[in-house]
Amino acid sequence: MHLRTSLSRPARATRRPVKGRARALLLALCVLGAAALLSAPSAQAYTPARPEQAYAPVKIVHTEQVQAGPYHLTLGFSTWPLRAMQSLDFTFAPDGGLTGKSGTFSMTRPGAKAGMRGVRPLSRHPRKRSVWGLDILSLPTAGQWAFTFTVNGPQGQGTGTLGNLTVLDQPGPPLALSWTLCALPVLGLIAFLIVAWRRHRPSRHLAVAGV
């Protein structure tokens, strides 16, 4: 006579909660990985520039002339033609150098009313200390801009304006379209994680197991 000893198999219901917890843990790891990927560009944006980048020479490719009373200014641009939302360097060089001179300047955007322009002091360019200037600035809108300078020096005060400075439309697709295209992968990832979580959430498996 052969005796068969049957070993009872573990109930499937007892294994499902463990499997559900494993899936929940995997889903949590996916969420953390996605958050790390999304935060990577922001961290990179705040990374300090390397010394060779911080002190890169200013290359002027176009100049304009402004007469501010007795003072003659040469305006330099590191990119030409100008386009909206395109970063570039500006330099403002008075004849005879900066010794004994100071002043202010303002930029008037297209369609701005009189008096609605921000006035700021003329300061040395951070990477070209021999002249006044602006370091990596972009003009936000296309159209006709005006730069107004007031210079104080040994010959008194003088004011001059460079008007009708044409700024073209920004390069590439419109900004709203660019943001939309960039957001599509993120929205798709969020939708995928939500669907995966609803299919494999632990509470559902516990209910099936009768816990």
From TrEMBL:
<feature type="transmembrane region" description="Helical">
    <location>
        <begin position="176"/>
        <end position="197"/>
    </location>
</feature>
<keyword id="KW-0812">Transmembrane</keyword>
<protein>
    <recommendedName>
        <fullName>CopC domain-containing protein</fullName>
    </recommendedName>
</protein>
<keyword id="KW-0472">Membrane</keyword>
<feature type="signal peptide">
    <location>
        <begin position="1"/>
        <end position="45"/>
    </location>
</feature>
<keyword id="KW-1133">Transmembrane helix</keyword>
<keyword id="KW-0732">Signal</keyword>
